[in-house]
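Supplementary Methods S3. Input chains for the assembly prediction are listed below.
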Amino acid sequence: MALSSLLNVARDALTAQTFGVSVTSQNITNANTPGYVRREAILASRVLGNQTYGTVVAIGIKRNQDSFIAQKFLSATGMGAAATERDQELQQIEALFNDMSGAGIGEALDRINASFQQLSVDPGDAISRENVLTALAGFTGRLNETGNALAVQRTEIFNQMQNQVSDLNEKAVQIADLNKKIAEAVVLGNDAADLKDRRNQIIVELSNIVDIKLVEGKDGALFVQAAGATLVEGDIARSFGVELASNGDVRLTARRTPTSSATDVTGGLNGGTLAGLKETRDVDLRAIASKLDTFVYDFATAMNTQHAAGFGLDGGTGRNLFDLNLVGAPPDGASRTISLSVDVAGQPNRIAASDSALTLPGSGVNAKAITQLFDQPVLFGGTRTASEGYSDIIGDVGLRRANSKGQMELRSAMQAQFSELNDAASGVSLDEEMVNLTKFQRAYQAATKVLATVDELLQELIQRV
Amino acid sequence: MRVTENMRAAQTLRGASELRNRHLTAAEEVTTGVTVNRPSDDPSVAARLTRIQRAREQNQSMASAIALGRADLELAESVLSEAGALLQRAQEVAMTAANGSASADVRRATAEEIEGIRSALLGLANTKGVRGYIFSGSRTDTAAFDATYAFQGDDYQHSIRTGPSSETTISSSGASAFTSLNGGRNIFQDLTDLYDAMVTNDQPGIQAQLDNLIAGHEQVVLERARTGVNISRIDQNDTILTNSTFLYGKQQADLAGADPAESYTKLTLLEQAIQRSLMVSQQMLSLDAFSITR
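Predicted structure tokens for the full assembly:
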């Protein structure tokens, strides 16, 4: 080999090691970039002709990603997001029923009981009668507040789902666009690593919204399935939507084109915040609101029946304590709409403390009977007392939140585990990059030495000539 | 396994977050003194605590009702005691007048005393308490007897709940004490008849009313005794309510009360753990090949 050829070898070495340093720098720079997959410089020896010696060439870079682990990580992310979202929503619901901090519905029940107890002692006392009305109004106010808060939360969750689906559709369009650019780059023989990283980041964000499955085509384009339905195919993005079914539940739909008919894909929704929101809205909130409505309806009906049997100071009878303006079939909407009956509102003398018109004003028999209702199983089909019925709701809310908290912790742990595995395959280790940097630096220094040596040899030769 | 920067940072973050959460819970336990601060902390205990709280509040409202009802009952007992003394005096006066040696003038003079007793008794029977006229039954807004000594009330017995399954009468019956509505003597009528017999110097008539007065006196004493029994009953129920309220409080403390020593120890241990964790995190995150070799 000619001395001048050795210069070429040194040049190739310098170029290749510089490439290695460049890739290492890129890794170091992106050590904390979300979605970034570490690169590895691929160096190969280049054989020169049919000779037995050759040089080195950087033939490209490799993105180190384990697609199996990556898919697991995305699934775990989706499941974790669903549990976290549900837990956050249930935390708000729990605050509505947190009697431990006082001022709950239980306390309002106690006030009614105590006010009738006081009235039963002195049925003719105007202050005791005012107390009853105040306690009843406090109870209806507290229930309206709770019932409305549950209804508003359902509405807000639906709005939130709409926003998230809109975000999902936007991300689908971005992925389709990146798919197109990546396929074009691959055709031209480029790696398109940066584009893939950007797509990767969007995919991770997407997996927080909905459970997704990925298949990468030979052209580098990703086929994305969301909630079991096609979301992105090549450079085409489908459109998802949310709507209310006839029973009030949320339906997740998919359309092949904006004008095509919507397909219900709700059944495939298992992960992501959308799944967490749907479960909270259509399972948890529905069950809690239904129990609360039944509690309110049964309690108010029993109170009305007993009160109607009594007589007010004016001798009137057959009057209700509560008005129930239901929004559907009983007991639907009872907690939201219950109000103090117009029969007694603002008219304390109409509170029926007596059981007979002949024993006015001193009889407290009916007031006493009303306080006895608090110890009788008049709720939930005659199986629970007011105290038991309400404590059942507290227990149910507590169980749901405890369950969501446990689920969130478990799924977070799984997500962390898969995140570690995924990171172990594709993340940047500064220790490793330090070693690589040193490796390429030393090789570069050695190549420089080769260059200097060849240069010295050539100078020697020139001087002798 | 390769250990990357993100892994180290994430692990540090997770550890710190977990410790901070536990520290927050421990601090809450120390400040509130209870281990169950929200339903999800222990759903079953939370449900039981809710039921116990309702029972406790109901006890307290019954205890308040007892305190409210007791005043008129005690007043009634005192009034009946006075009424009994008046009737005792009436008997003595009647016995004097019934004596065969008593003159018509003496009998007319004693008649005046009987008239005084009748008026005083009317005043007692028309006593007003906290809830109105205490011997009028349900007609608490009407005096029990009018100026003609006619009974205006009824025989309503006012009872209230003094326990989850017990009731106690908090009224004294004017009908039973002073009238013949329940088969007893109409005391005012008997006093009127006695007065008339004295004024008309009717010795047999006076003698006949003497027995009626004794029966009337016993009637008042009996009603006083019933009232006393009711006072005693509400006292017993009040004691039971106080005891069970205490027991409910104890149950609540047993179920969810935090042991201060244990809570503070937990909090202190967690504070130390956080300090150690922060130190380790700092060391871990500053430990890389660049900072050592460069």
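Chain A touches chain B through 67 residues (CB under 8 Å). DSSP finds ten helices and eleven strands in chain A.
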